[in-house]
């Protein structure tokens, strides 16, 4: 009963419903205009766009599905020509493919024709080694990760708005000490608040993510999830070759994206925990909201504005590693060739931060009830 009451208090805030609705509308509009709007292909001089282009590309990619080899890349080039940007076409107004224009699935995710042009370098040799499963990856590449990162920012904002008043609102209304007289007591009340906040945060994240994944499955199909992740996210390959990474580039795109989505859930829960800690300290909901937003955004600002341009030192590398473990950056690590030991450190660090914030917030709220 106590948990349900606390969860209802969070869910009954109209601003959260309005924010969630606006967030979903924004993602839907971006999906329509940017993701689908950028899909096009030429078929005998006819320009196909949006879902027609996707279906056309999926059919072509199906013919070349399987291990990517140099022979297969040569066959692609022989049939379609070299990859040329639309702006470089002399006959772009007619959509004539004679100049060799080819911009669909067979030139995405590692771009085999482009790689063939530089077949003497390590990247091209690796990508055409036959170790990577090729297929249609439209949508399930940076398009999906870009949209999901926007989703993470939207959900994080909603989580901060939802969790900031959890403790601080009772301080402001001076109702916290009254809970001492109830049968539940201070410990159960604080635990119920934390559990309700986590339930709401995780539920909203899973709802948004399921809707996004469903939209991509409906439009792009599931075939791209079985393609080698190194073709969907080339950074996995380049990092292994040039920076001695140890990412398994032969994992399927689906497996890598699953790890990415689970890491996103962890980042959302850490955001909720940090916000709850701040809420247990601040006496004003608005103040807790501002400090929580700063705690989420400030590390990203420091990293991108200052740390990126500074001279590399051991201390700076350690600081960057810690910042990369914070919620704003944590999921991005799954799509790079960062060594597994570094990713594992990020998981452990985030889990410890989550537990620390929960315990300290719980303790602070309980002490406040007895006037300490």
Overview of this structure, please?
It is built from 15 helices and 4 strands. It is 65% helix and 5% strand. The two termini are 28 Å apart. It is mostly helical and 372 residues long. Helix 9 runs antiparallel to helix 12 and helix 12 runs parallel beside helix 15. A two-stranded antiparallel sheet has the order 1-2.
List the helices and strands and how they pair.
Layout: H1 2-11, H2 14-35, E1 40-43, E2 46-49, H3 50-63, E3 66-69, H4 70-80, H5 112-117, H6 122-127, E4 129-134, H7 142-163, H8 165-173, H9 185-220, H10 229-232, H11 235-242, H12 253-281, H13 285-306, H14 314-324, H15 340-369
Antiparallel strand pairs: 1-2, 3-4
Task: Report a brief summary of the structure.
The protein is mostly helical and 372 residues long. It has 15 helices and 4 strands.
């Amino acid at each position: 009963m106590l948990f349900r009451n606390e969860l209802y208090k969070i869910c009954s805030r109209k601003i959260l419903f309005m924010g969630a609705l606006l967030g979903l509308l924004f993602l839907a509009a971006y999906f329509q205009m940017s993701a689908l709007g950028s899909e096009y292909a030429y078929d005998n001089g006819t320009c196909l766009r949006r879902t027609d282009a996707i279906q056309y590309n999926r059919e072509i990619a199906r013919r070349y599905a399987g291990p990517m080899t140099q022979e297969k890349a040569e066959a692609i080039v022989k049939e379609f020509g070299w990859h040329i940007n639309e702006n470089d076409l002399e006959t772009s107004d007619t959509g004539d493919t004679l100049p060799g224009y080819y911009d669909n699935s067979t030139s995405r995710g590692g771009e085999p024709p482009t790689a063939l042009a530089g077949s003497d370098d390590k990247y091209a040799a690796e990508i055409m080694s036959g170790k990577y499963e090729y297929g249609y990856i439209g949508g399930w590449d940076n398009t999906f990760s870009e949209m999901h990162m926007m989703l993470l920012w939207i959900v994080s904002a909603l989580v901060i708005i939802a969790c900031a008043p959890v403790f601080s609102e009772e301080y402001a209304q001076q109702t916290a000490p009254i809970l001492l007289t109830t049968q539940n007591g201070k410990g159960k009340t604080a635990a119920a608040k934390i559990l309700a906040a986590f339930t709401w945060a995780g539920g909203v994240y899973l709802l948004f993510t399921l809707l996004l994944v469903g939209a991509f499955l409906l439009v792009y199909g599931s075939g791209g999830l079985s393609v080698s992740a190194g073709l969907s996210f080339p950074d996995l390959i380049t990092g292994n070759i040039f920076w001695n990474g140890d990412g398994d580039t032969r994992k399927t795109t689906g497996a890598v994206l699953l790890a990415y989505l689970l890491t996103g859930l962890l980042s959302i829960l850490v955001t909720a925990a940090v916000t709850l800690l701040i809420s247990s300290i601040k006496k004003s909901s608005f103040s807790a909201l501002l400090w929580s937003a700063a705690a989420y955004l400030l590390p990203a600002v420091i990293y991108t504005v200052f740390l990126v341009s500074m001279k590399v030192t051991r201390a700076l590398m350690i600081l960057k590693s810690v910042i990369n473990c914070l919620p704003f950056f944590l999921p991005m690590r799954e799509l790079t060739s960062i060594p597994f030991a570094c990713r594992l450190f990020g998981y452990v660090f985030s889990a410890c931060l989550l537990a620390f914030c929960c315990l300290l917030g719980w303790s602070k709220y309980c002490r406040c009830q007895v006037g300490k």
